[in-house]
């Protein structure tokens, strides 16, 4: 996707407004800074589509403060330096009230100083690194409706133990995201008085994981906890599939693999490996199925995809959709698009029922993570590349 994508979507945001509700006031613009063309492009596209559906709904209802909403997209391609440049450009545009982020924790972490220097509300619909939110800034301009690694680590270990595995091994990307997960997973094992696992690391772009897998076999590991994105996850699957069946360890993965075209990257090899991964939402077993079906209808009309099985990275769709609606409520509460006032109002939004769950308070001054482990479940790819939930969603208490 080219760098002028944002201008295309500026037009699209206006085109999605209902004919009877076009207004003369300048639109309120939401930025999207994500990987739209590299390894996590599928996640970026999903976030974009979820945001556009929410914008469509809001514009049909007359917009926010009597103004239409629109989306402007910039592609950071997984590159932190490009992401910082994007945030600088967004911050310089007075009509941009907030920015949605993308899949990559390393990019988000590097952007935080620029975000806070400009006082630009940052809405995270995917990147899971705990320090994105626990960042030490006051006031904190980062808000997340997504997985938090501190919770994810405990969930992944819980799922491994629940399935009878006793000797997990960790295969982690050598980035702040991987390091965040090592901390969370080892803490979860300590809390359960379990021995510490063997840990192996890899870098982005690796094409060989044989040494890491041999280390796991020597340690007599019985399951791999994987934290990485689709390209390296595909190398893991292909390496396991090439091994004798008796040596193919099962994999329980973080959800980075769902941000790229993982099923195409792995091909038939995926069917030879027991591979499941973290999810928070599915159109097949949504918290509010009626709401999910209505959004699916909007998705069909806007993007010509009429089957839930054809929607890739549905978690990105759902999280971005909910964040845009929560942002709209905050703008209304603030009665302003002033960024600081909107930031403050995000902590005061109440009683929002979204795709992912009902929120009495999505955010408070003390809590900028909207989701917790009650929204987590495991999913897996079927033969057609559709992500299917394993079991049912645990219903939240509120």
Task: Set down the secondary structure blueprint.
Elements lengths: L4 H11 L12 E7 L6 H20 L8 E7 L4 H12 L4 E5 L4 H14 L3 E3 L17 E3 L4 H14 L5 E6 L2 H16 L7 E4 L7 H9 L4 E5 L2 H12 L9 E3 L8 H5 L8 E5 L9 H15 L10 H21 L4 H8 L5 E2 L4 E2 L17 E5 L5 E4 L8
Parallel strand pairs: 1-2, 1-3, 3-4, 4-5, 6-7, 6-8, 8-9, 9-10
Antiparallel strand pairs: 10-13, 11-12, 13-14
Examine the coordinates and then state which fold CATH places here, giving the name of the CATH topology of the largest domain: Rossmann fold
Shape: globular
CATH superfamily of the largest domain: Response regulator
Architecture of the largest domain in CATH?
A: 3-Layer(aba) Sandwich
Description:
The chain has 398 residues and is of the alpha/beta class. It folds into two domains: 5-147 and 284-373, Response regulator (Rossmann fold), CATH 3.40.50; 150-279, Rossmann fold. The protein is 39% helix and 15% strand. The chain has helices at residues 5-15, 41-60, 80-91, 105-118, 149-162, 176-191, 210-218, 230-241, 262-266, 289-303, 314-334, 339-346; strands spanning 28-34, 69-75, 96-100, 122-124, 142-144, 168-173, 199-202, 223-227, 251-253, 275-279, 352-353, 358-359, 377-381, 387-390. The strands form three sheets. It has a seven-stranded mixed β-sheet with strand order 7-6-8-9-10-13-14, sandwiched between helices. It has a five-stranded parallel β-sheet with strand order 2-1-3-4-5, sandwiched between helices. A hairpin with a 5-residue loop joins β13 and β14 (387-390). The two termini are 39 Å apart.
């Amino acid at each position: 996707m080219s760098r002028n994508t944002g201008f295309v979507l500026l037009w699209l945001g206006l085109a999605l407004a209902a004919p009877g509700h076009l207004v003369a006031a300048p639109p309120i613009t939401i930025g999207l800074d994500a990987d739209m063309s590299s390894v996590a492009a599928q996640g970026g596209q999903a976030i974009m589509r979820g945001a556009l559906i929410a914008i469509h709904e809001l514009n049909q209802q007359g917009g926010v403060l009597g103004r239409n909403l629109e989306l402007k997209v910039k592609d950071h391609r997984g590159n932190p330096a490009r992401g910082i440049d994007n945030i600088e450009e967004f911050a310089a545009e007075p009509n941009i009230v907030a920015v949605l982020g993308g899949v990559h924790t390393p990019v988000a972490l590097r952007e935080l100083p620029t975000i806070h220097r400009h006082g630009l509300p940052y809405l995270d619909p995917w990147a899971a690194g705990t320090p994105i939110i626990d960042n030490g800034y006051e006031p904190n301009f980062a808000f997340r409706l997504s997985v938090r690694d501190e919770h994810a680590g405990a969930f992944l270990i819980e799922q491994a133990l629940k399935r009878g595995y006793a000797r997990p091994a960790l295969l982690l990307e050598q980035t702040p995201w991987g390091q965040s997960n090592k901390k969370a997973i080892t803490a979860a094992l300590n809390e359960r008085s379990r021995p510490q696992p063997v840990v192996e690391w890899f870098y982005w772009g690796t094409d060989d994981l044989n040494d890491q897998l041999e280390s796991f076999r020597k340690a007599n590991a019985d399951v791999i906890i994987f934290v990485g994105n689709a390209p390296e996850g595909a190398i893991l699957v292909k390496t396991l599939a090439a091994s004798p069946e008796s040596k193919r360890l099962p994999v329980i993965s973080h959800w980075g693999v769902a941000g790229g075209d993982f099923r195409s990257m792995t091909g038939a090899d995926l069917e030879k490996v027991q591979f499941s991964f973290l999810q928070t939402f599915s159109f097949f077993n949504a918290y509010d199925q009626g709401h999910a079906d209505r959004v699916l209808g909007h998705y069909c009309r806007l993007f010509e995809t009429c089957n839930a099985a054809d929607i890739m990275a549905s978690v990105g769709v759902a999280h971005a959709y909910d964040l845009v609606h929560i942002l709209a409520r905050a703008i209304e509460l603030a009665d302003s698009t002033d960024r600081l006032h909107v930031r403050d109002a995000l902590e005061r939004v109440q009683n929002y029922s979204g795709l992912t769950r009902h929120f009495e308070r999505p955010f408070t001054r003390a809590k900028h993570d909207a989701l917790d482990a009650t929204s987590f479940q495991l999913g897996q790819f079927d033969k057609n590349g559709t992500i299917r939930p394993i079991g049912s969603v645990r219903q939240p208490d509120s």
